[in-house]
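Archive maintenance. Older records in this collection stored only the sequence; we are now back-filling the structure field for every entry so that each record is complete. The fields below show one back-filled record exactly as it appears after the update. Entries are processed alphabetically, and Type-4 uracil-DNA glycosylase is next in the queue.

ARCHIVE ENTRY
Title: Type-4 uracil-DNA glycosylase
Organism field: Candidatus Gemmiger excrementipullorum
Length field: 188
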Amino acid sequence: MDLPTLQQQCLACRRCALCETRTHVVFGQGAPDAEVMFVGEGPGASEDAQGQPFVGRSGQLLDHYLEAVDLDRKTNVYIANVVKCRPPQNRDPLPEEADACLPWLRQQFSLLRPKIVVCLGRVAAQQLIAPGFSVSRDHGKFFDKHGTLFMATYHPAALLRSPAGKPVAFGDFVALREKIAQVCERTY
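Back-filled structure field:
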């Protein structure tokens, strides 16, 4: 299987109740050979309307940080979410929604085989790194899970609500750039 085939299957997903209120499935976007994968919690209103991850105000901030460390969603990273459909009022995904959607993310991960996964926010970090993960305590640290490095940083939407965290998050992206130089084969 390849990413386009997986995406076509995902677009027809009806595994949980989120399918009833979505406008679009937000499968993911980026370079199919990316060694760095970013994972958020789920689509917001702009993402649901356009069918692409991180395209609203938080996506603009994410793009700014990516550009600052020579990353770009079109050429060298892949961006996805824990859930592929927007939870109502942008609430956190319910456990059963995340459980229903995680097989899609696992298949994306299996096809991409990234060397580094960056969790954007608490929900993604608790799903992918550890259930009790604290972004405020452990942001910017790398964790090796079966040969893949995982790191979490603040979700861009949280930074828009609390701009004082932006320098800390930028430091996480600088640490990411240094780790990419150590472990990735592609030149960034």
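Update note: Residues 40 and 81 are 4 Å apart (CA to CA). The beta strands are 29-30, 36-40, 77-81, 116-120, 142-145, 148-153.
Entry marked complete.
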